[in-house]
Write a structure and sequence with these properties.
The protein is mostly helical. Strand 1 and strand 2 form a beta hairpin. The radius of gyration is 17 Å and the shape is globular. The protein has a single domain, classed as Hypothetical protein, domain 2 (Endonuclease III, domain 1, Orthogonal Bundle), CATH 1.10.340. The N and C termini lie far apart (49 Å). Helix 2 crosses helix 10. This is DNA-3-methyladenine glycosylase I. One of its GO terms (biological process) is base-excision repair.
Length: 208
């Protein structure tokens, strides 16, 4: 099977874009481009957790609602959420009303705050798990990886929840820790160049 399909401009894109027309913009401007912003990294970990058992199309359609519900995924603010906030969110039909996942976001916000105190930033911590190119499977041939297993295991040890290896692998694909665009995709080279130019976040002196 061909790994690409023609995009709206006729250039080839990763085949998964065919699942929904709104995937093209997400694929072309976000997926796989490296991210060093703590809030965006936290948001993506949360949204990947919400996607568990659902489609990304469902989550992407509700993304702005999730952002509004969770204070723009500012984990300092979400960490202060109470049980009353959880109950309030359970009545919000603009998001996925799954108690375990909502509670996981609040828990993980508190864990993220702790992690920043220890590591200086969420980005510095996450990018420590970037695999070398020769350790990566061919694009889109795996749902987990040694790197995602390692990051998942460490997050769980730190008290995070809904961060299994498959969820973490999807997070790593989306946030540019690996370039999982297929070779024939028009965006593959753009992501490769962005990754080459990206300044990897480092642990801040004095952190921890």
């Amino acid at each position: 099977m061909n790994a690409t399909i023609p995009g709206p401009d006729g250039r080839p894109r990763c085949r998964w874009c065919a699942a929904a027309p709104e995937f093209f913009a997400y694929h072309d401007t976000e997926w796989g481009f490296p991210v060093g912003d703590d809030r965006r990294l936290f948001e993506k970990l949360c949204l990947e957790a919400f996607q568990s058992g659902l489609s990304w199309r469902t989550i992407l359609a509700k993304r702005e609602n999730f952002r509004a519900a969770f204070e723009g995924f500012d984990f300092e603010r979400v960490a202060a959420f109470t049980q009353a906030d959880v109950e309030r969110l359970m009545t919000n039909d603009g998001i996925v009303r799954h108690r375990g996942k909502i509670e996981a976001v609040v828990n993980n916000a508190r864990r993220a705050r702790e992690l920043v105190e220890q590591e200086g930033s969420l980005a510095a911590y996450v990018w420590r798990f970037e695999p070398s190119a020769d350790a990566c499977a061919p694009p889109q041939t795996a749902s987990t990886s040694p790197a995602s297993v390692a990051l998942s295991k460490d997050l769980k040890k730190r008290g995070w929840s809904f961060v299994g290896p498959t969820t973490v692998h999807a997070f790593m694909q989306a946030m540019g820790l690996i370039n999982d665009h297929v070779e024939g995709c028009a965006v593959h080279g753009e992501v490769e160049r962005a990754r080459a130019a990206f300044q990897r976040p480092r642990r801040m002196a004095g952190a921890g």
